[in-house]
Design a protein that fits this description.
The protein is of the alpha/beta class. It is built from seven helices and six strands; from the N terminus they run αββαβαβαβαβαα. α2 packs antiparallel against α6. The structure holds iron/sulfur cluster.
Length: 188
């Protein structure tokens, strides 16, 4: 009788799940949120720098401001491997088709950040040869004001893009609104 008793297994202790969990060992989320989290933390920027704002960006990338703290230290000059186009500097009209080509070569999903007065509006160069804002040729997600913007502003702009990437619905890029937006820019 005493031998039978010793073979009995002790009852397992069930630890109560922490807040946000629906059971031991897993938690519930949505695929949108999981993918948004991954996208947000793995943005690869393509710096399209044509003038002084590009120099300010170098400062934001350097050790003092350390833009790479967001996990995006891998700048890419290959459009196919980038998902964040950062336009910094004066864009001459002659340069516009090149910028547009770079944008169209980037794979979806992609975001565009317009940094500084020149990229956003032409800035002080209200002349026949300068594009008066890159949103005349490609859609822009976030604008950073300033001439040039401070590195803190650049970081703020990146955080705004991260917010967009994290909260974007997976259906957005297939939606009618997005199709219409691209049509407006005559982009297939
Ligand atoms: S916004 Fe100012 S700093 Fe930036 S490219 Fe134009 S002139 Fe240079």
């Amino acid at each position: 009788m005493s031998q039978e008793k010793s073979l009995e297994r002790p009852k397992p202790t069930i630890v109560p799940p922490p807040e946000g969990h629906t059971g031991t060992g897993f938690f519930a989320t949505s695929i949108d949120q999981a993918i948004g989290l991954a996208r947000k933390n793995s943005l690869w920027p393509l710096p399209f720098a044509t003038s002084c704002c590009g120099i300010e960006f170098m400062s934001a990338m350097s050790s003092h401001y350390d833009l790479s703290r967001f996990g995006m230290e891998r700048l890419s000059f290959s459009p196919r491997q980038s998902d964040l186009l950062m336009v910094m500097g004066t864009i001459a009209k002659k340069m516009a088709p090149v910028l547009r080509e770079v944008y169209t070569q980037m794979a979806e999903p992609k975001w565009v950040l317009s940094m500084g007065a020149c990229a956003s509006t032409g800035g002080i160069f209200d002349t026949y040869s300068v594009l008066q804002g890159i949103d005349r040729i490609i859609p822009v997600d976030v604008y950073i004001p300033g001439c040039p913007p401070r590195p803190e502003q650049i970081i703020d702009g990146i955080l705004k893009i991260q917010e967009l990437a994290a909260n974007e619905s997976l259906r957005r890029r297939y939606s009618k609104e997005y199709e219409d937006l691209l049509k407006k820019y005559a982009i297939d």
